[in-house]
Amino acid sequence: MKFKGETVFGNGIVSGELVVYREPLSFLGDVDGRNGVIRTISASIVGKVLVIPSSRGSTVGPYVMYQLSKYGKAPLVILSVKADTMLIIGAVMAQIPIMTNLPRDILNLSSGAIARVDLDRGEVYVNEP
Q: N or C, fewer C-beta in 10 Å, the chain?
């Protein structure tokens, strides 16, 4: 399966396991910045490809993203249907590659599937079991 998006930050090719979160993600409320876990679903995002529709919340969210990076608990890349300004700022601050403007169909993928993200081409390739 192939998805086309727009790379906002980052380059190269990143491969990893998907963690798909189908609701807008609040980095301040939903994510443990020290451990890299989405509290609401008890899923680790450490070294994974995080798929979200968007983010929600306040200006503190980027600092939680920075905390993830500082403690070595950040995702490899964030794939978003629609990235708002705070999500983009957080990704750049934390040096987490981010791609946006992906089709909503990407949210139908299963966590655990393996993705290959080509940030230079703005393409995501996924092999679902």
A: C
Query: Rounded to the nearest 5°, which phi and psi values hold at 92?
Result: -65, -45
Say how far apart CA 85 and CA 118 lie, in whole Å: 22
14-46: per-residue pLDDT in tens?
Answer: 999 999 999 999 999 999 999 999 999 999 999
Tokens of 6: 């727009």
Tokens 């998907």 correspond to: 18
Could you list the active site residues? 58
